[in-house]
Design brief:
This protein is α+β, with helices and mostly antiparallel strands. 31% of the residues lie in helices and 29% in strands.
């Protein structure tokens, strides 16, 4: 007998369309002999199961069930493919944990912490994880451009604190451009982080629990055609993603050790993809994504393929790990 799996996708953020692509890939690659999968689209307006013919069935949010032809369907596990809010910031994790439904993402606290770039960096600094120099800014704060640049230098990055896929990120080269970058970031969040520019090789490192063990996947080197790894570079082919990365042995050892250490320090579960930039042989941590892209072209699936793990194996393992936590 197959298990009922809800694949949640969409969400409330600018990443909704990307999330739906990830969710559809998960649906296509889950073994049909093991699972009966349902595509659940989450938006601010409605939560619905979208059938193959496009027909929609409302989700009962009291117990996260659906009714089809008079039959109530409950789910054995939820595969979380929502990038951004509410799937990556802790809200869906808390909801499913209250309902005691296994889910493939990390815990509620870990999701909320890693989604908040400033808070995550502050926690990891206590463990001597190298990070860029940063300056926090909230909407309504006085903007002292000179004080900001004196601290972080030029060029620098202005980032929305709680957004993904490089939405609300601007690289600032001149102090005169700082305010417009701040205005852009405030369109995506009311909290910002302004960081110093790190000039070095950028890499992305996938870490997950695989067959009960913490596994660090082959490293991906990011070579952007644009000024930095922005939305166009990530999703519109304006970058080269090289897996495995062209690193020295010591660089590879250092970043793998650090990525695994961060995963364990934060008591993570499920998928993670952390970004680093090297200064010499030392990787500097930028941020962690806990619901990374899961399409065939996305970085983490590329890394899994390099490690000899198919999408079917990757997604099946995520469900098995989630179910094992609830035993």
């Amino acid at each position: 007998m197959t298990q009922n799996i809800a694949i949640i996708m969409g969400g409330f953020s600018s990443e909704a369309a990307i999330s739906i692509k990830s969710g559809q890939v998960v649906f296509q690659h889950l073994p049909k002999q093991l699972y009966t999968a349902y595509c659940i689209h989450i938006s601010k307006e409605k939560w619905v199961y979208v059938a193959a013919d496009g027909k929609e069935f409302l989700v009962n949010t009291n117990d996260f069930s659906i009714v089809i032809d008079g039959k109530t369907i409950h789910f054995d596990c939820v595969f979380n493919a929502i990038h951004g809010a509410p799937g990556e910031d802790g809200f869906m994790q808390a909801y499913f944990e209250l309902l005691d439904i296994p889910h493939t993402s990390c815990g509620m606290y870990q999701a909320a912490l890693t989604f908040n770039k400033r808070d995550c960096l502050n926690v990891l600094k206590a463990y001597n994880i190298p990070t860029a120099i940063s300056y926090p800014l909230n909407k309504g704060d006085n903007v002292n451009a000179k004080a900001i640049i004196d601290r972080v230098g030029l060029p620098c990055f202005v980032k929305a604190n709680r957004a993904g896929s490089s939405f609300g990120v601007t690289k600032v080269h001149q102090i005169e451009d700082l305010q417009s970058a701040i205005d852009i970031a405030f369109e995506h969040d009311d909290e910002l982080i302004i960081e110093s520019y790190l000039d070095g090789t950028e890499v992305s490192v996938g870490v997950l629990r695989y067959k009960g063990e913490v596994l660090v996947l082959p490293i991906t080197e990011i070579v952007s055609e644009n000024d930095f790894f922005d939305y166009e570079a990530k999703y519109l082919g304006k970058s080269e993603e090289i897996t495995p990365a062209r690193l020295s042995k010591i660089q590879e050892q250092n970043v793998k050790k650090m990525a695994k250490s961060i995963y364990e320090i934060l008591k993570m579960d499920g998928f993670s993809r952390s970004e680093f930039i090297f200064k010499g042989d030392i990787p500097y941590f930028l941020e962690m994504n806990t619901i990374p892209g899961l399409t065939e072209e996305s970085i983490l699936p590329q890394q899994a393929a390099c490690a000899g793990i198919s999408l079917s194996e990757l997604f099946t393992n995520a469900i098995e790990e989630a179910m094992a936590k609830n035993v």
